[in-house]
Amino acid sequence: MSKLTLEAIELVDAIDRHGSFAAAAERLHKVPSTVSYAINKLEEQLGLAVFTRNGPRVSLTPAGLELVKEGRWLLNAAADLESRMRQIATGYEAEIRLVHDSLIPSSAFADDICAFEDLRCGTRLRIATEALTGSWEALRDGRADMVIAAGDGPAGGGYKAVNVGALAFGFCVAPTHPLARSPLPLARKDLLQHTAIVVGDSARHLAERTVGLQLGQKRITVPNIATKIAYQVAGLGHGFLPLACIQSELARGTLINLPIAESRPDELFWLGWKTGHQGEALKWWVQRLSRPLLPSILPERA
Length: 302
What we know:
It is globular and about 70 Å long. With 302 residues, the protein is α/β, with parallel strands linked by helices. Helix 5 (110-117) links the parallel strand 3 (95-101) and strand 4 (124-130). The strands form 4 sheets. A 5-stranded mixed β-sheet has the order 4-3-5-12-6, sandwiched between helices. The chain contains 10 helices and 12 strands. Helix content is 37%, strand content 21%. Helix 1 crosses helix 2 (21-28), helix 1 packs across helix 4 (62-90) and helix 2 crosses helix 3.
C-alpha cells in the first residue's frame, strides 16, 4: 500500500507555500503539533527527509521538491476528477475559484456570495487575489475558473472576457512632498528625481507589467493598493492612484492630484473565464458578474 496520501501531499504543499509548519497549520485550520507529527510520521514511513529544518523555517529537500512537483499534479487531477463526478451527478462543480485584482477588496463581493450561498448547490467557493498580470496568469495556468483582471489578457486565447468597468487615475503626492511645490504640469524629468511607489506584479511566469514608471526610476514596491495609498499619504513617494479609492484623502488634503504632462489612461477591467464545458456554478457566476462592477463595487473610504 502506498505510504503517500493526497492529504499528506496537500500538507507538504501547504508547508512549502507558506514557509513553516505553523503558517501551514493556520491555513489548514490545524494545530502546529498535529502538522509536525504528520510530517515526522510521513518521513518515517518513507525512510527519507522531506524537509530541512532551520528553526521555525523549513525548506524542501531534493526528494521533497520532487514530491511537491509531482504531487501538485496529483492534487489538481484529484480535484478535477471530483469536480467532473459532481458535475455528472448534479451539474454543479465541486469548487469554483474566483481570482480578482488586489485593487478590489474581497468584501466587495459579499452580496454576490450571499446570493450564491442561497442556491445551496454544494459548490465550494475559493476566492484569492493577484496583482496586475497575476490574475490573468491564474486563469491561464488553471489556478482560477474566472478572474476579474485589469488590462489586456494573455495571448493565445482559450478564454472569454467581457468588460466590467474602468477606473480613472490621478497622479498624487502628499502636500509635503517636493513635487507639490514644482512647476506644473509635471514633466518626466521631475518624476525621475523622486521615488515612485508601485504595486508589484504577482505574475510568476508571464512578463511583469509596470505602469507609469520611467527607465531608471527609483521605486518602492508594495503588495497592494492600500499600502501604496498609505505610503503616498506618508510622503514616501509619488504615483498614479485610482481616484475612486482616494476621495476621502483628496477631500481631507492628505493627498493632492497634480497635472502631469504624460497622464495615465483609464484602466479597463475584465471578467474572464475559460472556454469549453461550463458547470452550472460557473454559468451562474459569469451571468452574475457580467455587469458594470467598477468603480461602483469599490467601498467608500471614510
